[in-house]
Amino acid sequence: MTDGATGRARAGAKTVADLLRRRGEQIAQRWADLPFFQAVFTVTRDEAVEACHAVVDSLSAVAESGRVDDLEAPGFQPIREQLIAMTASRARSGLSTAQVDREVGALREAALELLAADAPEEAGEARVQLVTLFATLRVMVVDTMLQENQEIVLRQRQQLLEMATPVIKLWDRLVAVPLIGMLDSARSQVVMENLLEAIVEHKATIVILDITGVSTVDSLVAHHLMKTVASARLMGAECVISGIRPAIAQTIVQLGLDLGPVTTRASLADALEWALERREGRDLPTRGNP
Amino acid sequence: MNHAAQESIRVPIRKDTDLTVVRQQVRALAQRTGFGLVQQTKLVTAASELARNTLLHGGGGAAEIRVVHGQAGAGLSVSFVDSGPGIPDVDLALSDGYSTAGGLGMGLSGSKRLVQEFEIESGPDGGTRVTVTSWADPYSVGHGVR
Amino acid sequence: MTSSSTIPVLDLGGLLLVSIQGELPDDAAVSLQKDVTAAVANTGSRGLIIDISALDMVDSFLARVLAEVAASSRLLAARTVLVGMRPAVAITLVELGLSLPGMDTARTVTEAAASFGVTIEQTDRPGRGTS
Questions:
Q1: Cα B65 from chain centroid?
Q2: Does C95 sit within 8 Å of A236, measured CB to CB?
Q3: A239 vs chain C: nearest CA distance in angstroms?
């Protein structure tokens, strides 16, 4: 950029800053009726107007600093939190990132019209600056939403991992762990750790691992199941795997998987029967049954 | 492997009791680096196996423990260095059940399964350097799996 | 180092109980192996209970010592039960490829004793290793 161009850009940005300051009230009043503000601040209109003012002031400060294309401009700082809250609210209403982006884009019109009315002779460069400023605002909003989405995805993955293994106490020292869905490496690891912790917590001597809800059993899943059974045994608890559907039994045979010494039963009921018989035979000190 | 080293400890391995020191140091640093209990135990066990190898096969040496940072977050890298005869056939030594010192033959091959990265450098002129790296959160989904 | 381990071997109504307390250096493990085997032979016990609930790690060396103690005891007609292994230790041993198929296991000393028909007046003691 030449010195002349830089000078013109700066002057244009200054014009924009002045416009936003002078016409702040009018812009805020018009924005308050646009969906991006109106749909978020539903209690009173004053609330919406106040939020609009905060955005106008912030944009004015950014223009004043001449950094209209800079996402990191300090002028944006005061409204960052507010924008995060507003976009989150719009997203909760079911709007996509693109739809919110369009709503933010609609804010530009009011400012452009007032610029044309107030300063027709300087409009050229100031218009460029104003358009850039609103483009930056849009990028900021979209970026905020993407970050928020990313966090939601991470949170949900984490929740899925944690929800993955409910441990059900069936009887004194007898617990059942129903497995549901896909078992990838990360989930299998969490399942195994939770199950072994449950053995300690419930003083369990027998664990029924029910795989009725597991969608596919491949060699990886079979391997994880066997490792879980072996670890439980080392801790002094016996495992029985139940819920082996006919299709899964066939897959296991066709893949040539050897479940080795693992006890298996077709249904949870069969496994429970086995467990209760096993318990009788274990010559445990007689304790009150629940 | 280009993990920027931050914190580093060197433990000599000259006698039986040094293995205890290696285990304690690895455990302490793993705890400080945010390892979950299972990850800690796996790394400490691998370190114990490899430190014993260094003592029995390498005629002694040292363990270098350092905190590393990679794409998966923070981790611990432990190198076992000796100037012994070296390992003539690394592939063979890494197979299950291979034993020269009367163990269960699970030392080298087993430790490999306990860590995320495993590297052996052994020259024809002797000397071995085994480096293992483990991440605090190997199933990194942004937040720890514990 | 003397050849005698510092780990006491207790007689529990005809059963031997060994509680390993914390960190066990290799030479201590070897002398433990000698002492325990000698105790089994001397007492003619039919059962040996090894409590490892205090251990936060078992590597292949210690696993071999434990398996050998069980094997020698079997020759002397005593059955060995390993008690109180922590979850993280169990996962690690299995990953190492050592699932100790020849050894009996139990959650607690009480349960192990019960499997010999011996009742211990004691609440369950899962040791410190509950996590």
A1: 9
A2: no
A3: 13
| Interface check A200 vs B, CB under 8 A | no
Considering the domain architecture, whether residues A172 and A102 belong to the same structural domain is answered as: no
Q: Which of A128, A161, A194 is the last residue of a domain?
A: A161
**Interchain pair B139, A154: CB under 8 A:** no
Q: Do residue A155 and residue A20 come from a single domain?
A: yes
CB contact under 8 A, C99 and A197: no
Query: Which parts of A32-96 fold into alpha helices (H)?
Result: 35-38, 45-65, 77-92
Looking at the structure, tell me whether residues A178 and A153 fall in a common domain.
no
Among A161, A183, A200, residue at a domain's last position: A161
Shared domain check, A49 and A19: yes
Tally of structural domains, chain A: 2
By DSSP bridging, strand A263-264 and strand A238-242 are: parallel
CA distance C83 to chain B (A): 18
Question: Chain A contact for B140, CB < 8 A?
Answer: no
| Contacting residues of B for C87, CB less than 8 Å apart | 38
Answer whether B118's CB lies under 8 Å from B111's CB: yes
| Structural domain of A75 | 3-161
Residue B33 inside a domain? The answer is yes
User: Which structural domain, as residue segments, surrounds residue B97?
Assistant: 8-135
Query: Residue C112, Cβ neighbours under 10 Å: how many?
Result: 29
Complex ipTM value = 0.87
Let me know whether A105 and A244 are in one domain.
no
Shortest CA distance from B108: residue in chain C: C96
Residues in chain A with pLDDT values less than 50: 283-290
Q: In this complex, do A186 and B141 lie within 8 Å of one another by their Cβ atoms?
A: yes
Q: Retrieve residue A213's tokens.
A: 């809800």
**pLDDT beyond 60 at C129:** no
Cα→Cα distances A41→A19, A52, A96, B134, Å? 25, 10, 19, 49
Domain at A15, CATH number: 1.10.490
Is residue B3, in this structure, part of any structural domain at all? no
> Is this structure's pTM higher than 0.90?
no
Q: Is some CB atom of chain B closer than 8 A to the CB atom of A161?
A: yes
Kindly state whether A223 is in contact with chain B, defined as any CB-CB distance less than 8 angstroms. Answer: no
Q: What's the number of domains chain B is made of?
A: 1
CB contact under 8 A, B45 and C97: no
Q: Is the pLDDT of residue B101 over 90?
A: no
**Looking at the complex, does the CB of residue B48 fall below 8 Å from at least one CB of chain C?**
yes
Confidence of residue B2 (pLDDT cuts 50, 70, 90): very low
B37 touches chain C (CB under 8 A): yes
A63 with A113, same domain?
yes
Task: Looking at the structure, give the CATH architecture of the domain made up of residues C9-114.
Answer: 2-Layer Sandwich (3.30)
**What is the pLDDT of chain B when averaged over all its residues?**
83
From the list C25, C27, C60, the residue facing B104 with the nearest CB is C60
- Picking from A279, A229, A198, A173, the residue whose alpha carbon sits closest to that of residue C124 is A173
Could you tell me where the DSSP H helices lie in B1-145?
16-32, 37-56, 90-93, 107-114
